[in-house]
């Protein structure tokens, strides 16, 4: 037995030494030390950035994961000047950093970039990290890989071109997520393309596949005074989920711009009559919009858009008038892309609308918009509206369906009706046109008791900033 024990001890001593050094904490005080530590890193290491100001720190993380880069004290590592962070290998985690008092390096696409898969940035802030000129374009966070996550972070004060957060157009950028993050104080500087989140992916060019998509999740985030674009959240791809977010006092709305098969559920939008505040706008087909609460916006509660007619039965461009200017796009299935997709086969269920300035549900919004250059004449059809509740203490029109014009050249179009079941309107009126029917919408006298908003998003932003 003694001989066996001695042999086992000798075998253990001969094992490779690598695992004995796993889970090391390596403190670094400058960029040179950080790069040296990354070059010597092994799986399981934690590299700790010393508290203080890191000027012009361009950090490219390429290391065997899992590996963590964190601040010595969350919120006390300040990246200033021309600094950026990129996660270039799988299974990397970054925590506790603050980008402030600087801007992205010249030519950079973003401040924080997920170039690989299964990365995470958490407990981190980007605050007023802006160039001198608002036309200088870069994102603050950009996803190029898949299965990445930004969470419990703060993004405040972006005032220049490009969205705060973006998902790449390529098929590799899938299954990413942003959660428990606070977006705040994005001013309107009169430039298009300054959304809080713009989610590109399959579906952005009207592709015809039904299973492919970005599969991006946006949940439990807080948006306050986010005014950069009339699309606060802009979905431009298939199969995304937006849920349990709170939008408060922000110009714009939650928008399904391009793509199909998206889910928008249990979000709270509190306009408080903030200028240009909106609810939810929907284009495309096979969406699910349920359980959302929209109150006090200065615009519409829900806008279900008209779609653009582009092609005849042979998939050839169909010019309803000589003034039609089709939107050429070689990446679209037939070489041209509609401005807005027709809304069909979607479900709108158990949404609550309270004291909104304009109509709470408008079906066929944008009908003949920019006519005849655009052919926005495809009314919503085959959609189902079930159990939605409207409270209008000041009266006004609650539900509108745009009427179809039948004078040439529009007489050739016919549309199937949308279905209403168990919807209730307190204190409002209806403006419903064929082929739709108001059957399934109950109109009751004005009620003093409107349902209060559900619990709002809590615990957003970095733990050290609460």
From TrEMBL:
Molecular-function GO terms, alphabetical: poly(beta-D-mannuronate) lyase activity
SUPFAM superfamilies named among the record's database cross-references: Pectin lyase-like (SSF51126)
UniProt entry tagged with the keyword Signal: yes
Compositional bias annotation for Polar residues: 457-466
Gene3D superfamilies: Single-stranded right-handed beta-helix, Pectin lyase-like
Annotated stretches, region: Disordered: 444-466
Signal peptide location: 1-22
Highest taxon of the lineage: Bacteria
EC number: 4.2.2.3
Keywords in alphabetical order: Lyase, Signal
Name of this chain's protein: Poly(Beta-D-mannuronate) lyase
Organism: Nonomuraea dietziae
């Amino acid at each position: 037995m003694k001989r066996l024990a001695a042999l086992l001890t000798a075998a253990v001593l001969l094992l490779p030494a690598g695992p004995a050094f796993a889970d090391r904490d390596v403190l670094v005080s400058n960029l040179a030390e950080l790069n040296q530590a990354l070059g010597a890193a092994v799986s399981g290491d934690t590299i700790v950035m010393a508290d203080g100001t890191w000027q012009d720190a361009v950090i490219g993380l390429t290391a065997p994961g899992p590996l963590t880069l964190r601040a010595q004290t969350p919120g006390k590592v300040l990246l200033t000047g021309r600094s950026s962070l990129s996660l270039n290998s799988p299974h990397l985690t970054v925590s506790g950093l603050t980008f402030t008092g600087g801007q992205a390096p010249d030519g950079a696409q973003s401040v924080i970039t997920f170039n690989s898969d299964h990365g995470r940035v958490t407990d981190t802030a980007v605050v007023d990290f802006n160039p001198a000129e608002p036309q200088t374009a870069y994102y603050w966070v950009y996803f190029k890989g898949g299965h990445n996550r930004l969470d419990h972070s703060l993004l405040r004060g972006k005032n220049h071109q490009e969205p705060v957060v973006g998902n790449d157009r390529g098929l590799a950028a899938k299954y990413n997520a942003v959660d428990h993050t606070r977006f705040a104080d994005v001013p309107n500087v009169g430039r298009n393309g300054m959304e809080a989140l713009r989610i590109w992916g399959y579906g952005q060019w009207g592709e015809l596949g039904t299973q492919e998509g970005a599969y991006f999740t946006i949940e439990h985030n807080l948006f306050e005074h986010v005014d950069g674009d009339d699309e606060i959240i802009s979905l431009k791809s298939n199969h995304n989920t937006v849920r349990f977010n709170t939008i408060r006092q922000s110009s714009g709305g939650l928008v399904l711009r391009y793509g199909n098969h998206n889910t928008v559920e249990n979000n709270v939008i509190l306009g408080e009559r903030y200028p240009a505040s909106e609810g939810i706008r929907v284009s495309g087909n096979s969406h699910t919009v349920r359980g959302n609460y929209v109150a006090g916006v200065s615009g519409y509660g829900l806008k279900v858009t008209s779609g653009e007619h582009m092609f005849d039965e042979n998939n050839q461009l169909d010019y309803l008038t000589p003034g039609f200017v089709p939107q050429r796009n070689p990446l679209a299935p037939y070489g041209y892309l509609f401005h807005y997709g027709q809304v069909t086969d979607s479900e709108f269920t158990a949404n609550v609308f309270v004291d909104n300035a304009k109509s709470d549900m408008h079906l066929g919004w944008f009908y003949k918009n920019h006519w005849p250059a655009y052919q926005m004449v495809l009314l919503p059809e085959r959609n189902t509206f079930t159990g939605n509740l409207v409270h209008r203490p000041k009266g006004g029109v609650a539900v509108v369906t745009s009427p179809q014009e039948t004078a040439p050249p529009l007489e050739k179009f016919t549309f199937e009706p949308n279905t209403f079941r168990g919807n209730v309107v307190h204190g409002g009126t209806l403006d419903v046109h064929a082929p739709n029917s108001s059957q399934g919408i109950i109109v009751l006298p004005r009620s003093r008791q409107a349902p209060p908003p559900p619990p709002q998003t809590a615990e957003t932003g970095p733990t050290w900033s609460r």
